[in-house]
Structure formats: structure tokens, C-alpha cells
Amino acid sequence: MDFVKGVVKKYFRSYNRTLKDGTKKTYKTEQIQVTIPKSDNIFEDKEEVIILSSSQSEEIEDSIEMQRALELFNTMVEDDNQQLEDELNKLKGELEINNSKIDDYNSKIKDLKLELEEYNKKNHFLEDKCSDLKMQIEEDKATIESLESKIKDKNFIISDLNDNLNKLNEKIDAKNSSLLGSNFIGESNEDDVIALSPIQSIADYDYTHYIDLQRQYIALLNKYEKSQEDLYNEKVKVIHYKNLLDKFKNFILRIQ
């Protein structure tokens, strides 16, 4: 809508007329003229126009400005709404993705719970196994201590046997020296070969004690060898139990 400012001028005119009955009556006419600048003449001939007062024109202009402002505001609101709608669609897409992730996480959590239950079962089994192993370790410790005590006793017996063997060896050496040192003398034959001949009958010597010493020596030697064999077997057992104990300890350290 186009507005043009102009100036309104009013013209008044009065005239009298005599009626048929001879009476006179006064009439008044009013004429309004609107003058606008030539540069603002945008009208066509006989075009219908609306004439408003300045106050009404200002109100209309204010209304038009308000309308334009409202249209601008409406455009801004529409832009904001479009942005919000785009963000809403984006958030909906992200929400769907997050819901899908949540479903995956819930599925993984369910699987992890099952794994945890299996782990707890295995853990209870291992705890029971560890308890049994600890009891076995205590028993093995007691066995090792017992074997070590037996080894000490065997070592003590072997030490005594060594002492007895040394004493018997000394006695046998002394007996052999007495027998071999004085029983034979040298004689010359025709070929000047020195031969040993007894100067006294061998029956004159008492071999009974010598034979008894040899028998005791052999018996002690056999006992010594048997003790050495028993000692070796006991040491092998101790090594076996110690290795087994170390394996149990390492196993417990790994599962703790």
C-alpha cells in the first residue's frame, strides 16, 4: 500500500432559494480539496483513493512497521524453529545411536555377568583346591621335617660306623703287621735265591681273633653300605618333597 501526503482544504458556500409556496430556504455546500505535490502524483484519473488524517496515517504506518517487525520476528522464529528442528532431528539420530549402543552394552553386560558367574565358580573351586593344597603343603612340610630328622639320625649312625670301621682297620692292620713281620726268615739255596721259609708252624698263631675281626669288619662294611643307600634314598625323598612344595607355592602365587 502506497501513501502520499497532501493538504486538505475545505470550502463552504451558502445560497438562498425561494420555494413554490413563496418561502425562502438557505442551503449550505461544502467542498473539500486535497492538494499533493506534483512529484507525489501517482494516481490515475477517477481513481478511488482513501483519505486519512495524519493521526490515522501514523497509526497505520505504525501498524505497518509493527507488521514488518512481526514478519521479521516471525522469519527469525521460523529460522530458529528450523534450527531447533534440525538439532532435534540430529539429537533423535544420536539418541537412536545411543540406544543401539546401550543395547550392545546391555548385551555385553549380560555376557560379562555370565562370565563373572563362571569365574566365581572357578574361583570357589580354586579356593577349595588351594585349601587342599595348603593342607598338603603342611603335610609335606611335616614329612620333610621327619625325613630331615631321619637323615640326621642316619648321619649319626654312619659317623659311628665310620669310627668303628676305622678302629677295626687299625686292629686288622696291627694284626697283619704282627703276622707278616716275624713269621718268615731268608735262606740261601744252591742258586743263591732268597726264599722265605717259616721258622715256626702257622698253627702256633691264633687266627680266631683275626677271623672274627674280619667278619666284624665285613658286617660293619655291609651295614655302612646299607646305611649309605638308605641315606641316599632319604635325600631323594627330601628333594622330591621340596620340589613338590615349591610347585605348590608357585601355583598358589599364580592364582592369588
Written description of the protein model:
By secondary structure, the chain is α+β, with helices and mostly antiparallel strands. The chain has two helices and four strands. It has helices spanning 54-182, 208-255; strands spanning 7-18, 24-35, 184-188, 194-198. The strands form two sheets. It has a two-stranded antiparallel ribbon. The protein has a two-stranded antiparallel ribbon with strand order 3-4. A hairpin with a 5-residue loop joins strand 3 (184-188) and strand 4. Helix 1 (54-182) packs antiparallel against helix 2 (208-255). The radius of gyration is 70 Å and the shape is rod-shaped.
- Mean pLDDT score: 75
Number of helices, counting only DSSP H or I runs of 4 residues or more: 2
User: Structural class of the secondary structure composition?
Assistant: alpha+beta
Computed over alpha carbons, the radius of gyration is 70 Å
Strand percentage, roughly? 5-15%
Low-confidence stretches: 182-205
- The end-to-end span amounts to 91 Å
Shape: rod-shaped
Oligomer: single chain
The ordered H/E elements are EEHEEH
Q: Per CATH, what is the topology of one domain?
A: Helix Hairpins
What is the makeup of the main sheet? 2 strands, antiparallel
What's the helical proportion of residues? 55-70%
The number of distinct β-strands equals 4
Describe the secondary-structure layout.
Layout: E1 7-18, E2 24-35, H1 54-182, E3 184-188, E4 194-198, H2 208-255
Antiparallel strand pairs: 1-2, 3-4
